[in-house]
Amino acid sequence: MYTLDELQSIVKKCHRCPLSKARTNVVFGEGSEKATIMFIGEGPGYNEDKMGRPFVGRAGELLDRMIEAIGFKREDVYIANVVKCRPPNNRDPLEEESEICIEFLRWQVKIVDPDIIVCLGRIAAKSIIHKDFRITQNRGIWYNKGKFNIMATYHPAALLRDESKKRDAWEDFKSIKRKYEELNEDMKG
Ligand code: URA
């Protein structure tokens, strides 16, 4: 088993796919090593590539506000992406790029060992929940995979493009909070 630091130094040197050629920085992920909730996006955008940190652009600011609205701070959770290097012109990651890179995400999940995994958008949901996932139909539904409670909601960038999605996304975030409380109650027995 790696530590997150060990894994990060491996990922930083990765050249397993062509996305590594154009990157400024690898965006490994960040947050609490003991997080109960892990958010997973699709891949770094322009700002994330420049800064080497996930969700630091406008979508990231919105994500931070939503995390705070349900009573957590960004530092309490763990935030990562399916692919760690920016796809050119913000295109969707290709299936083969996701397949190669998701091994690193699996390690992150193993190390952080969250109870709740939230997929942000279609790409993360397809890679993590099932390949035929439809974000409009299947968002907000809880899936169980082993010990993990997994749900997908809209990507914050989609909420910036279409304000009408915000109401559903807010319902999903309230459901995340309820799941967290339910699991905490179970722990107390
Ligand atoms: N969009 C993502 O999917 N991930 C980020 O880190 C930033 C924007």
Helix content: 40-55%
Give the number of DSSP strands.
Answer: 6
Biggest sheet, open or closed, and with what strands and sense?
6 strands, mixed
Low-confidence blocks of residues: none
Q: Please write the string of helix (H) and strand (E) elements.
A: HHEEHHEHEHHEEHH
Strand order of the largest sheet: 1-3-2-4-6-5
Instruction: Provide a count of the helices.
Output: 9
N-C termini distance:
30 Å
The average pLDDT score comes to: 97
The portion of residues forming beta strands comes to 5-15%
Rg over CA atoms, rounded to whole Å, is: 16 Å
Q: Globular, elongated, flat, extended or rod-shaped: what is the shape?
A: globular
Structural class: alpha/beta
**Small-molecule components bound:** uracil
Polypeptide structure, described:
By secondary structure, the chain is α/β, with parallel strands linked by helices. 47% of the residues lie in helices and 13% in strands. It has a 6-stranded mixed β-sheet, with helices on both faces. Strand 5 and strand 6 (148-153) form a beta hairpin. The longest helix is centred in the last third of the chain and has 23 residues, at 166-188. The chain is globular. The two termini are 30 Å apart. Bound molecules: uracil.
Q: What layout of secondary structure does this protein have?
A:
Elements: H1 4-12, H2 19-22, E1 30-31, E2 37-41, H3 46-51, H4 58-69, E3 78-81, H5 95-112, E4 116-120, H6 122-128, H7 135-138, E5 143-145, E6 148-153, H8 156-161, H9 166-188
Parallel strand pairs: 2-3, 2-4, 4-6
Antiparallel strand pairs: 1-3, 5-6
The structure holds uracil.
